[in-house]
Amino acid sequence: MTMSLKSFEQHLIESAKRTEALLASLLGDSRLAGEIARPASLLAAMRHGTLNGGKRLRPFLVQESAALLGGDPQVAARVGCALECVHCYSLIHDDLPAMDNDDIRRGRPTVHKAFDEASAILAGDSLLTFAFDIIAAPETRLADRPKVELILALSRASGIGGMAGGQALDLAAEKSPPDEAGILTLQAMKTGALLRFACEAGAIVAGSDTEDRQRLRTFGQKIGLAFQLADDLLDVTADAAIMGKATGKDAGRGKGTLVALHGTAWAEERLATLAQEAIDLLAGFGPRASILQQAAQFIADRKN
């Protein structure tokens, strides 16, 4: 890897700014063809839950995976925004009193606190639907087949067999903590599925062959595991002000995590192993994979 950590972080910041700008445009006041109106209060709630900073890691992974394989950067940017809409919908709904009951997200009031619960539910519903609108729209200049592949893959990553199912398992874990296999399944679904999609989506955008698509998919699985493990460590060790959200929640609710099961020393060692496995997966691409390899290390080393 040739890019320094500081250079990588600046690259991530610049990418996040571009994603934020495109999201702001997509969530603008002007209605699209076929839309009857964009209710101002609902749009405001959607924007509050989406245009609130963050690393925009998932769009970044879509864009860098596509770039690695020669994909169109404008298409990758739109697909990345679609994925970010799904991610932000999940955060809005996860924060609701019926779910994780959080008041702060990225240092600001959560949507149900800034607006109300009904607005938060509708904002999440609208963002989820809008994600597939973005991919299907003619402005996303892809042939029909890769568009269908993207829609199918994102549906599978988001729904009962992916993120939403993972959240259901997470809620159940508060009542009956799972064993290690159950924890790994839960985390692969709730957190890992969208990160896996982010990397695979770049390969779909680029029209890559099955081997490269599978390699990026496996890379996404590795960094998804690393991301959740890092998150569990931060929940134990980080300060809420740095995180921009409440910490210590897992222990407070009696949830089973790999950190609780094996301890922080084991988790830190496992994180390092996952990062190296992800880095090694992309070694065959040579120096052009350095940004994605640095992303794997960044995920393992992150402090918020």
UniProtKB/TrEMBL annotation:
Cofactor section: Mg(2+)
UniProt-listed SUPFAM superfamilies: Terpenoid synthases
Keyword Transport among UniProt keywords: no
Keywords: Isoprene biosynthesis, Magnesium, Metal-binding, Transferase
Domain of life of the organism encoding this protein: Bacteria
UniProt family annotation: Belongs to the FPP/GGPP synthase family.
Protein name: Polyprenyl synthetase family protein
Gene source species: Pseudorhizobium endolithicum
